[in-house]
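Hi everyone,

Forwarding the result from last night's run.
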Amino acid sequence: MRPRLGVWKFSSCDGCQLSILDAEDELLELGRRLDIAYFPEATRKPLRGRFDLSLVEGSVGTPQDARRVLDVRARSRVLVAIGACATAGGIQALRNFRDAARMAGVVYPRPDWAPILPTSTPISEHVRVDFELRGCPISKAQLVETVRAFLRGAAPAVRRHSVCMECKRAGAVCVLVAHGTPCLGPVTRHGCGALCPRCDRGCYGCYGPQEDPNAASLARKFARLGLSAEATRELYRNFNVWAPAFRRAQERS
């Protein structure tokens, strides 16, 4: 029997699930090797049984999420968190620094109809995660490699170097050095193809922190460019605001 695949949504925008559908030709190949047993974004199959591989999008942001993620983990042999929401709380984790209940009262006329948790947190803060794919949204190529590695019974060959390496490979001029543009590329994990720096814009940190990022050194560079400590903190308050390395960078700025 083909391995059963489940795709799950928590608090998110659905962008990473759409990246799965964007795989197109690769999805046809994988569909022949996997039983896509549960994927509400793409199919109407009911939720039944256990899954060999689960791809989980979204953060845990509601009491229902907190209960449901336990069920997903219990049903899954391998669980992969996909995207910035699932791996670092997402943009909605900005509420972790504020009074979430007061904010809900400002946004919703009946906040009791939309119960939320005080924080938005990654899947790994609630259950064991076997692998994480970063990005807002995830890289189609990294997704396909991860699923193929699962089918081979191997670890995914997803590298963890910084966006700067992608810039060098593409022959892009460093916007930080050449133009003095604040850029999170030196501390951000690759995966986007250095899209923003190649358009003469600084990296926004969509793929979260690379391994062992030297955020303190980059903050000193920003200070020499004339950025205030508050401006540096705001750079890190993005899609991966709750990632530990980016949180420490905010605290030190």
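The radius of gyration is 19 Å.

Cheers,
N.
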